[in-house]
Specification:
With 328 residues, the protein is α+β, with helices and mostly antiparallel strands. The protein folds into two domains: 236 residues; 64 residues, no CATH class. Helices cover 60% and strands 8% of the residues. The chain is built from ten helices and four strands, in the order H-H-H-H-H-H-H-H-E-E-E-H-E-H. The protein has a four-stranded antiparallel beta sheet. Helix 3 runs antiparallel to helix 4, helix 4 packs antiparallel against helix 8 and helix 7 runs parallel beside helix 10. The longest helix has 40 residues. The protein starts with 7 loop residues before the first helix and ends with a helix. The relative contact order is 0.12.
Length: 328
């Protein structure tokens, strides 16, 4: 009589369950898991720090009698410290895109070239373009999630102050760290790093170049925020009170003017021995200010984000063309 037997090696092997990630998605997570974990840690630490700073700030304000007391009646050192903490937090967030570009974007392609693993692409079933798109998509997704979370939390911290929030939103860190600007900046610097890595093909030079170009570029861009919209103009009598409309605005220029609208420099007649006669002769009767109102902030941020995203597309196009046509 014959009996059915089963190979013990097969009998002892349990079928594995379905994997959550397959193919190139699994490869990207496995290959770049260190970068993924670092971004996760950055998000958790940054979020916890913002939540803690906001809570400590509100505790100090409530202990000082706010919101029952008006902001101008609070101790000056307290309001100055809060303003400095907010600006310091925004400046810290402003460095995040530079770090992401240098430490995530630059090595993404350059490391594969330097280590020789890029040559394996030609021997696999996926095309070079599929491999490249998978790497780029992974990097951009990893960048978008933490910067979105941190940007939302920082805006939540700033808005909790209400009228006590610093008014200098254009030249301070607030503009770059809230809304779409932080996310768009991170996408731009990361794509810059990817393109530089694809061109240089060496990790360390690509990281250094990306860091320097990003830092210089963002510094220059900070001086061009005034070009994102047309400032508003307001005039009032020389001896009159400052209009309330300037309360939440950022002044960008000062003038003195005539009733017909002719403008003179702010210091016109200021140092003249007969200042009143000088103004009378020129017909100067008004103080004039050019300013950006707070309700222009969102539109200016989206304009800046649009420019940054256009640069992102440009950098990625350079990367794709260089990688597809160049040797591996």
């Amino acid at each position: 009589m014959s009996t059915l037997t089963q190979d013990p090696t097969i009998r002892g092997r349990e079928p594995s369950g379905p994997r959550a990630l397959r193919g190139l998605a699994w490869l990207m997570v496995h290959q770049h898991r260190a970068a993924l974990l670092c971004c996760l840690a950055l998000t958790l630490i940054g979020a916890a720090w913002i939540v803690y700073q906001r809570g400590a700030m509100l505790d100090d304000l409530h202990a000082a009698g706010w919101p029952g007391k008006r902001g101008d009646s609070l101790p000056q050192d307290l309001t100055n410290r809060i303003s400095n903490d907010l600006n310091s937090g925004g400046v810290t967030l402003g460095f995040v895109p530079v770090l992401l570009g240098a430490f995530l974007g630059a090595p993404l392609i350059a490391a594969d070239y330097e280590n020789g693993t890029a040559r394996l692409v030609a021997t696999q079933s996926v095309s070079r373009l599929q491999w490249l798109l998978a790497k780029v998509s992974f990097a951009l997704l990893v960048v978008t999630v933490p910067t979105t979370i941190l940007s939302l939390l920082y805006g939540w911290w700033w808005r909790s102050l209400g009228p006590l929030a610093p008014n200098d939103w254009l030249t301070g860190a607030l503009f770059d760290s809230t809304g779409p600007v932080l996310v768009a900046t991170a996408l731009c610097t990361t794509s810059l790093g990817i393109a530089v890595g694809a061109l240089v093909r060496r990790v360390t030079p690509a990281m250094v170049a990306t860091f320097l170009i990003s830092a210089i570029g963002l510094t220059v861009a900070g001086g061009l925020r005034d070009e994102l919209a047309t400032p508003r103009r307001i005039a009032w009598p020389l001896d009159g009170e400052t209009p309330a409309a300037l309360g939440g605005g950022v002044e960008v220029d000062q003038w003195v003017g005539t009733a017909s609208g002719k403008l003179y420099g702010w210091s016109t007649c200021a140092h003249d021995a007969a200042a009143e006669k000088c103004r009378s002769d020129l017909g100067i009767v008004n103080t004039v200010r050019d300013y950006f109102d707070r309700d222009q902030m969102v539109g200016m941020q989206w304009t800046a984000a649009g420019v940054l995203l256009a640069l992102t597309v440009l950098f990625l196009t350079v990367c794709v063309l260089r990688t597809r046509r160049g040797r591996l």
